[in-house]
Amino acid sequence: MATACRLAAPLGLAPLPRGRTSAGVVAVAPCGSKIPRGVAVRATSGGEGATEEVPEIVKAAQDAWDKVEDKYAVATIGVAAIVALWTVVGAIKAIDKLPLLPGVLEIVGIGYTGWFTYRNLIFQPDREALIGKIKSTYKEITGSSS
Q1: Helix or strand or coil: residue 33?
Q2: pLDDT at position 142, please?
Q3: Which residues lie below 8 Å from residue 71, measured CB to CB, with a gap of 6+?
Q4: What is the pLDDT of residues 91-123, one digit of tens each?
Q5: Which of 15, 87, 93, 118 has its CA 20 to 30 A from that of 65?
Q6: Following CA atoms 17, 21, 27, 28 in sequence, which dihedral angle do they give, to the nearest 10 degrees?
Q7: More confident site: 68 or 2
Q8: Which are the contacts of 146, defined by CB distance < 8 A and separation ≥ 6?
Q9: In degrees rounded to 5, what are phi and psi of residue 69?
Q10: CA distance linking residue 137 with residue 131, whole number of Å
Q11: Contact indicator for 19, 27 with CB cutoff of 8 Å
Q12: Percentage of residues in the chain with pLDDT exceeding 90?
């Protein structure tokens, strides 16, 4: 504790504020002094303050996990997805640091958005064709008829 106090001054850190102890409030004292703790915490199992309500999404996730037969494969895919996301974020950050490339990619994105809008969304027959293509792709992927 004393070492941390000696290191705070050369680093330009402000001294810690003084405080009083009260129920639920942690007081901070100057370096080297002790503060009496007047708060006692006791963990209980059950009782009047304990609630056993679990959110519905947690129950749904638990039910879905219980239905999975190959938990190892699902966990592996989950870890691989997290690693892939981390890698993609790193690549995007690296590209963003290049001087001209982010601006060029933004212009390309704006141009493609304009082209897509003109080609598929402005006129009604094109919109209907796009909606039909989306629905057929959805049916193909899910195997359902809706």
Answers
A1: coil
A2: 86
A3: 65
A4: 999 988 888 888 899 999 999 999 999 999 999
A5: 87
A6: 60
A7: 68
A8: none
A9: -85, -45
A10: 10
A11: yes
A12: 45
Burial 97-107 (b: 16+ CB within 10 A, else e): eeeeeeeeeee
What tokens does 128 get? 């209907």
pLDDT score at 21: 47
What DSSP line would sit under the chain, residue for residue? -HHHHHHHTTTTPPPPPP---BTTB-----TT------------SSSSS------HHHHHHHHHHHH-S-HHHHHHHHHHHHHHHHHHHHHHHHHHHSSSHHHHHHHHHHHHHHHHIIIIISSHHHHHHHHHHHHHHHHHHH----
Token output for 84:
């892939």
Q: Which two tokens stand for residue 143?
A: 């195997």
Q: Which two tokens stand for residue 133?
A: 């293509």
The dihedral formed by the CA atoms of 120, 123, 124 and 130, expressed in degrees to the nearest 10: -10
- Contact assessment for residue 28 and residue 15, using Cβ atoms and an 8 Å cutoff: no
